[in-house]
Amino acid sequence: MTNKTVKKEDSHLFLEAIGKVSPIKSDKHTLAPTQKPKPYPKKNAQQITNKLTLTPSESVDALHAEDTLSYTAPGLQKNVLKKMRRGHYGLDAELDLHGLTSAAAKRELIKFLHFCEQDGYRCVRIIHGKGYRSANNLPVLKNDINIWLRQHQEVQAFCSTAQKDGGAGAVFVLLRLSDKYGDQDDTQY
Q: I want to staple 70 with a disulfide (CB 3.0 to 4.6 A). Which of 1, 133, 154, 159 is the partner?
């Protein structure tokens, strides 16, 4: 591209069209300092208490893949298990432990039961699997769940589910009624 020479007439016309112009001293623009955003308060980690008793109250035999589970706490009627299997209590929540290690499953179970107790859930389902791929054909999680649920203070009863709900690979768990529902009056106005 070649430089064009500007004639005085053209330059004069240009200046008339633009008007009075003052040169820019700096091409940098300083921003006004803004206030830093206020920090959000850090949430306290919830304290989840381990409600497993240290020793099981009775010895528990090892279960195989198709064996069913059942347990009732001392002093509870035996027909509670029939009512649970028939769905009398209704299902409030569910936890699936497939693929977890024993330690991870224990953490998840304790956390799940803690939140169920806080929310006032009565009947929950825990899916542990049948354990077909376990060594010696003894399911690890199924046997662990059998022991842990017997040791938990809030568990009143548990039993294997019906075939349509998971069969021998899942359990219905009946939890103790929450304290927050114990103080309410049952009178109707």
A: 159
